[in-house]
Amino acid sequence: MARIGIIGGGAWGTALGLVAARAGHDVRLWAREPDVVEIINARHENSRFLSGVALHPAINASAAMGDIMGWAELVALVAPAQHVRAVAGLIRATPSMPPLLVCAKGIEQNSGLLMSEVLEASVPGAPLSVLSGPTFAREVAEGKPTAVTIAGRDTALARRFAEAFGGRSFRPYVSDDLVGAQVGGAVKNVLAIAAGIAIGRGLGENARAALITRGFAEMTRLALAKGARAETLVGLSGLGDLVLTAGSDQSRNFALGRALGAGTTLAAHLAGRDSVAEGAASAPAVVALGAKLNVELPIAQAVDAVLHRGAAIDEAIGALLARPFKTER
Asked: pTM of this prediction?
């Protein structure tokens, strides 16, 4: 039995806390929202982010980062991607530094850094791995089976995390391709928005399949240019996560795209929501990284143009359909 800290009180952080508790560990969860901390400790549930799921009695919560970092032997960092740097600042202010498992999927705006690169810059020397793969939080919390990738340059540490979180219904596979696991997890969110737009616009399942396939080619090109291995992208953290996220209304990114395709504005869809569609924030960072690495990303560029540059959806679709015919690679 180990002491597992979870940094992040949203649906995914809560679900990972349940995974760790079911594996026999003591779990302490950090949340910035006082109401989330209160209800977890008083009623063993997280009704704000994961309603209807009873939490394991081994899980308790705190709003003080020191209560987690000074207690835990292993820590999962489950903040939204665009908030990882701010949370890293809170971690850096604590005297203890247990190994970190970065569970956010995205590319930081402005810097264009992967989440591991943000941590390496913000908390130099912190031992870290990343977790990625096809994981709807509610299904994980309900104990339905899934498999994930845990990647790190230090494969012994990645295996330690895999052993800590692994169980009958949560199956981690270890990789040393830190870059590939993260590029797949970031780009698939952008592609899921594209797939949602296609369905919301009534373009049909053929169009969704084509977008997923050609989007996967974009994901692979970007990952290879960043130094990843191609086989990582056909695994759980690439193709596996893309198939899940681009094919279900449970995906916040797909649901956002579907709403946009049906005529809802971005502001209207996001208004009043606690949950985060990571692809909306990652789209411009993905496009900028592609430009930096001289990688062509037409689908990601179209999503960014619709979300952030005032492009009309039909014009963006028309531009994609008017591209020259090429050899498939």
From this structure: 0.94
